Amino acid sequence: MANSFITVNGKAFPSPDVGLNFEVATLVNGGKNADGTFVGQKVGRDQYKVDNLQWFSLDAETWSSMLKEFSNYFVIVKFPDMVNNAWATLLMYPGNRTAEPQEIDSDTGLPSKYKNCKVNIIDCGVV
C-alpha cells in the first residue's frame, strides 16, 4: 500500500477515507474540592486514540489482512502525533472492527468486497 498513513506491527495501512480523529487524553488523580477548585494532579503521560479510522471500500483480502494484525490484540502502531508534529510509535489495542459486505463472490458465497470498514486504535498507556 503505497500511501501508508499508519502502520500496525510494521504493516502499512491505507490512508483512511473519512472520519479520522486524533484524541489525546490527560489522566488525573482527583477532581475539585468543596470550593470548586481543581486539586488533582496529572497521572502518567498523555494517552492517544486513533479514532474513527474508516475506509469506504476495501477488497476482502485487504480488509482481512488488516484485521489479522490485531489477532494478538496488542499491536505496535506508528501514527502521526499531533502534539509533537512527528511520528509516534506506541503499544496499542483495537476497539471494535466493523464492515458491511458490499459484493459477494458467486463461486464461494463469501464477501469479496466490504464497505464502511472501521476500527479505533487505543493507547495501552505503557511508557
Summary, kept brief:
With 127 residues, this protein is mostly beta strands. The chain has one helix and eight strands; from the N terminus they run ββββαββββ.
Give me the secondary-structure topology.
Layout: E1 4-8, E2 11-14, E3 21-25, E4 47-59, H1 60-68, E5 75-81, E6 86-94, E7 98-104, E8 111-123
Antiparallel strand pairs: 1-2, 1-5, 3-4, 4-8, 5-6, 6-8, 7-8
Number of strands: 8
- Helix count equals 1
Stretches where pLDDT is under 50 for at least 5 consecutive residues are none
Helix-residue proportion: under 10%
Mean pLDDT: 92
* Quaternary organisation: single chain
Using the CA coordinates, give the radius of gyration.
18 Å
What are the secondary-structure elements, in order, as H or E? EEEEHEEEE
- Overall morphology: elongated
Alpha-beta classification = mainly beta
Question: Beta-strand percentage?
Answer: over 45%
Task: Let me know the largest β-sheet.
Answer: 8 strands, antiparallel
Distance between the termini: 30 Å
Number of domains: 1
How would you describe the overall organization of this protein?
7% of the residues lie in helices and 50% in strands. The protein is mainly beta and 127 residues long. Strands 1, 2, 3, 4, 5, 6, 7 and 8 form an eight-stranded antiparallel sheet that branches. The protein has one helix spanning 60-68, and strands spanning 4-8, 11-14, 21-25, 47-59, 75-81, 86-94, 98-104, 111-123. The protein is built from one helix and eight strands; from the N terminus they run E-E-E-E-H-E-E-E-E. It has one domain (4-26, 46-123).
